[in-house]
Design a protein that fits this description.
The chain contains 3 helices and 4 strands, in the order βαβαββα. It has 91 residues and is an alpha+beta fold. It has one domain: Glutaredoxin (3-Layer(aba) Sandwich), CATH 3.40.30.10. Strands 2-1-3-4 form a 4-stranded mixed sheet, with helices on both faces. A hairpin with a 2-residue loop joins β3 and β4. It is globular. The two termini are 16 Å apart. This is Glutaredoxin.
Length: 91
């Protein structure tokens, strides 16, 4: 039996995590590992965007990378906490 979800709350498999970073960034490499692991565990999909390829993302996030968005809204930046991301995804 599946537990009831609050109205409007998405299941992890319906969520999209976006990692915004740039090549050569060691914090981005660390964040990628956490995002990849948590998304594999929860069934959420994820994508990565490079601020060096997108002027708008660069203007908005260059001081905060890596930045993690969940369904387009900022979840965290600099360091990604796996437990917090799991909770955000409803896992």
């Amino acid at each position: 039996m599946t537990p009831l979800l609050r109205r409007g709350k998405k299941k992890a498999g319906d969520r999209v995590v976006t990692l915004i970073g740039k090549p050569g960034c060691h914090l981005c490499d660390d964040a990628r590992s956490v995002v990849e692991q948590v998304c594999a565990e929860t069934g959420a999909s994820w994508e990565e965007k490079d601020i060096t390829q997108d002027e708008e993302l660069h203007r908005e996030y260059w001081e905060q990378i890596p930045v993690v968005l969940v369904d387009g809204e900022q979840h965290t930046f600099w360091r990604v906490d796996a437990g917090r991301l799991r909770r955000e995804l409803g896992a």
